[in-house]
Design goal:
By secondary structure, this protein is of the alpha/beta class. Among the domains are: 131 residues, Rossmann fold (3-Layer(aba) Sandwich), CATH 3.40.50; 91 residues. Helix content is 32%, strand content 20%. It contains nine helices and 15 strands. A nine-stranded mixed sheet has the order 3-4-2-5-1-6-7-8-15, with helices on both faces. β9 and β10 form a beta hairpin. It is globular. The N and C termini lie far apart (51 Å). The model has no long low-confidence stretch (mean pLDDT 91). Its EC number is 2.7.1.130. Pathway: Glycolipid biosynthesis; lipid IV(A) biosynthesis; lipid IV(A) from (3R)-3-hydroxytetradecanoyl-[acyl-carrier-protein] and UDP-N-acetyl-alpha-D-glucosamine: step 6/6. It is an enzyme of class 2 (transferase). One of its GO terms (molecular function) is ATP binding.
Length: 333
């Protein structure tokens, strides 16, 4: 299908030096110039930034596609709760199309309205959460309805209308910045130099460089969508199985299963894909393993073949200490 082919084509252009990328390079420089000008307008006060009375931590990335923000947001929310904070979470709600915004996210919310990532984050953290294309509206709803003393923004590094106390940039440690060019010639939303201004840089997989903190994703079991039964991934080695991923970087999920010793048949779908039962009908009864983000959209038609593979973020111990240090420096609690 064309929705699947376009991301593959973009990846081929963006993550290597190609003729197509060179043809698009002038447009990339134009995009870069606009991005720089837009940020300058916010910094000079020509465009309005809303500042809230509680600290706001923005977690984002420079590139288009999955870098690992969602596992980090979940880790941050749990960590801050352990430290005595009362975090609330805001997001754009990618993949959702609600009639009205902002939307409160709870157990009765639907992925078609609030997005798959929001459903997953709210379920995994137990934190109050709201979504809106205008992040400031989601923040206001949270502060009106919940007793939050810190706000986490899932994505939004480029959403400069939202004032922030801390910025955390997440980098895909395998692909990093591709060819280093801005859209549409490369994967960058802003030039790489933007990292000089963020407070913390987290690298998902690969090797962390100086001034970067390592994050590794780990998960060694699967959860059945119909029964809730848990099995170690090793239990799926004995028979063929399917692997499904509708995320920004599906190869990372497929490689995770491969490293666990599974010989899965991979099926990649576009990011935030709205699955239907027929999409997961592969003409056999083999188990179907999928990411948690995909699983939240498949519960309504789940059968015994469907399994979610949860992952947890393992953070560099120095990251937690530096995070608390920066919060103390930048905002009086």
């Amino acid at each position: 299908m064309i929705e699947t082919k376009l991301p593959r084509l973009a990846a081929r252009i963006w993550y290597r030096k190609t003729g197509a990328g060179l043809l698009l390079w002038p447009f990339g420089k134009l995009f870069e110039g606009i991005a720089r000008l837009r940020r300058a307008c916010y910094r000079c006060g020509w465009l309005k930034t809303t500042v809230f009375p509680v600290p706001v931590i923005v977690v984002g990335n420079l590139t288009v596609g999955g870098a690992g923000k969602t596992p980090l947001i979940i880790w941050l929310a749990r960590f801050l709760k352990e430290k005595g904070f009362r975090p609330g979470i805001v997001s754009r709600g990618y993949g959702g199309r609600a009639a009205l915004y902002p939307q409160w996210v709870d157990a009765d919310s639907r992925a078609g309205e609030v997005g798959d990532e929001a459903l997953l984050i709210a379920a995994r953290t137990g934190c109050p959460m709201a979504v809106s294309p205008v992040r400031t509206d989601a923040c206001r709803l949270l502060l009106d309805r919940a007793d939050c003393d810190v706000l986490l923004s899932d994505d939004g590094l480029q959403h400069y209308a939202l004032g922030r106390t801390l910025e955390i940039a997440v980098i895909d440690g395998e692909r990093r910045f591709g060819n280093g060019w801005c859209l549409p010639a490369g994967p960058l939303r802003e030039p790489e130099a933007r990292l000089k201004d963020v407070d913390l840089i987290v690298v998902n997989g690969g090797l962390a460089r100086p001034n970067e903190f390592s994050m590794q994703l780990a998960g060694a079991e699967a959860v059945n969508l119909l029964t809730g039964m848990r099995k170690p991934l090793a239990a799926f080695k004995a028979a063929p199985c399917h692997a499904v991923a509708g995320i920004g970087h599906p190869e990372r999920f497929f490689r995770h299963l491969e490293m666990a010793g599974l010989g899965c048949i991979p099926h990649d779908f576009p990011d935030h894909f709205a699955f239907r039962p027929e999409d997961l009908d592969f003409g056999d009864t083999f188990p179907v393993l999928m990411t948690e983000k995909d699983a939240v959209k498949c519960g309504a038609f789940a059968d015994e073949r469907l399994w979610a593979v949860p992952v947890e973020a393992n953070m560099d111990s120095a990251f937690a200490a530096r995070l608390i240090e920066l919060l103390s420096e930048k905002h009086d609690r």
